[in-house]
User: Fold these one by one.
Assistant:
Number 1:
Amino acid sequence: MSKFNETLKTILVINPIFESKKMKSFYSLILLSILFVSCGKAQNSQTTSKLTSESFSDDTFDRAYFASGCFWCVETIYESVNGVEEVFSGYSGGNTKNPTYESSNTGRTGHAEAIEVIYDPKMVSFKTLVDVYFGSQNVTQQNGQGPDIGSQYRSIIFYKNEDQKAIIDTKIESLSKEYNKPIAAEVMAFEKFWMGEKYHQDYKINNPNNPYIRNVSVPRYTNFKVRFPELLKPKSER
């Protein structure tokens, strides 16, 4: 990477929890959007085959749903967690049927980029997945994460039953005592997850040299690994 790019990377550092003292200014976000390809804007690339969500038995696995900025970033983080079998990128939280990247990007569908996490509850709990969620994002950033701004990138944490909602509410109550700004994530009853386009699946794996992946996704993932080493799969499985 050139010295110029290293300087920009320093200016636009991605903090694992985006602490307020390191929040990027409006002009830095503009610069970042010009310099790097934003999430979802990259051209379709080669993809590896991936099992479908229906391939996983409900008798063995459970499903959890999260929205936290660009789904490329969040998919990568959750796929590294021990007990998580698979993660799919898609859309949820809106009021229109069959959303696509193009339609959700207008901000008029109500949907946010989201992920479906298929996990073994005997190996990892929903509570731990909630800890991963809040521990890998800027919990007070409204309407986006990092350089990805707009309602389609807003934070939403979905619950499927009252037990899950109680876990989420307890976590938010605890976090609220640590910050002088409101916790940004919407808490929403899960209704439906719409699978994203094929080229969005495993995007980091298939496109390791993409500028956005290298300069946004990888730093966010790396910071997560530093914060939660005890949750990671063995290196051979990541």
Note: The longest strand covers residues 84-92.
Number 2:
Amino acid sequence: MTAILSVQTSDNPERQYSPLVLSQTAKMTDIDAKVYFPGQALRVLDERRFQSIGL
């Protein structure tokens, strides 16, 4: 099985799209895709912040 892991280290909203689009595209082609949010990148997963950046 082919797999891809994107490590998103930034909490900058403009930098969130690439790993998410890459992972979604990989999933569509039957590739096991994961996105890992360590450290500061976890801030973007906070629902209040997520709503404020309009993703």
Note: The first helix runs from residue 17 to 28.
